[in-house]
Amino acid sequence: MPGQAALSESLLSLTDWQAGDMILRQFPDGESYLRVLDDVQGRDVAILCQLHQPDSRVLPLLLLADTLRDLGAQRVGLVAPYLAYMRQDKRFNQGEGISSHYFARLISQHMDWLLTVDPHLHRIHQLDEVYSIPARSLTAVQPIADWIRQHVPKPLVIGPDSESEQWAARVADAAACPWEVLQKQRFGDRDVDVSLPHVENYLDRTPILVDDIISTGKTMIQAARHLINAGMTNPVCIAVHGIFAQGALADMQNNGLRVVTSNSIADDSNQIDLAPLLSDALMLFPD
Asked: What domains does the chain contain, in order, with CATH numbers?
């Protein structure tokens, strides 16, 4: 699907999968036109789809899956490095829908298997709790740790909130460095207060703020200010998925932060390649 040409090329170079070709465009009224240009009869097909800003991408994705199946594909799987609709995993207010469940049901109806990287699991502990197809979740912990070891001297991994404690600990363990966790209090979608950790023992280290997702960037910016005020150097901010609300990346960079993400979502901040991680899984999954 459009948007992940670089990751697709890397995956093809590391696996024995072949590139498929299709035409995807819109009619003047906004409906999607789709044509598969390859013979898929009896073949396994994997769709690589960037599900950032999913509402404009999901319908073409489902149309493609059904077209492939109608053309005789043996199995149709989804490789979604970033898996959307994982946050609303309970009914927080009366009248709300549990969209993570509905989205999982929708994908399960059209796909034979799912491969993703670090979905935003909270109250849902395993993908098979909501997906009825074989669904495998990989983790970018090791690729992130490898990048840290190669590019950051004397790192200190810091989780920006209590929910990231286990995540920060795993990255730090893989990178063989210490870690800390900040405390975050959220007052709204864009109003966040971050408490100062005990960093006096780490002033000679480079702080690495690590999280699974960067959206508005406000948490990272506030955390960085606290760390700088405490005498530390400007942090490096790392996320698996840079979904970046409008202006968020520029705002972080204007505050002197180095922002690094994986290529789960194509962006100029991509420095961590997920292709080796995904390619290993594609060679074995879903068999």
From this structure: 5-139+274-284 (3.40.50.2020), 141-263 (3.40.50.2020)
CA distance 169 to 180: 8
Q: What is the mean pLDDT of the chain?
A: 91
For residue 47, the surrounding DSSP H or E stretch is: strand 44-48
81, 22 in Cβ contact below 8 A?
A: no
**Quick check: 49 and 57 in contact, CB under 8 A?**
yes
48-88 tens-digit pLDDT: 998 999 999 999 999 999 999 999 999 999 999 999 998 88
Is there a contact between 140 and 119 (Cβ–Cβ < 8 Å)?
no
Amino acid at 135: A
CA–CA gap between residue 209 and residue 84 (Å, rounded)? 23
Ramachandran bin of 113, using left for φ above 0, alpha for ψ from -120 to 50, beta for the remaining angles: beta
CB 92 within 8 A of CB 83: no
The pairing of beta strand 270-272 with beta strand 258-262: parallel
First to last CA, the chain: 23
Residue range 249-274: average pLDDT? 95
Q: Which is nearest to 10 in space by CA: 198, 250, 282? A: 282
Q: Choose among 218, 217, 118, 198: nearest CA to 158.
A: 198
d(CA 286, CA 161): 34
Instruction: Please list the alpha-helical segments (H only) found in 48-135.
Output: 58-70, 99-110
Do 261 and 241 form a contact (C-beta atoms < 8 A)?
yes
Residue 4: other Cβ atoms inside 10 A = 21
> pLDDT of 85-122, one tens digit each?
988 888 889 998 999 999 999 999 999 999 999 998 77
Which range, of 93-97, 126-130, 150-154, 190-194, averages the lowest pLDDT?
190-194
Sheet holding 44-48, edge to edge: 44-48, 75-80, 113-117, 135-138
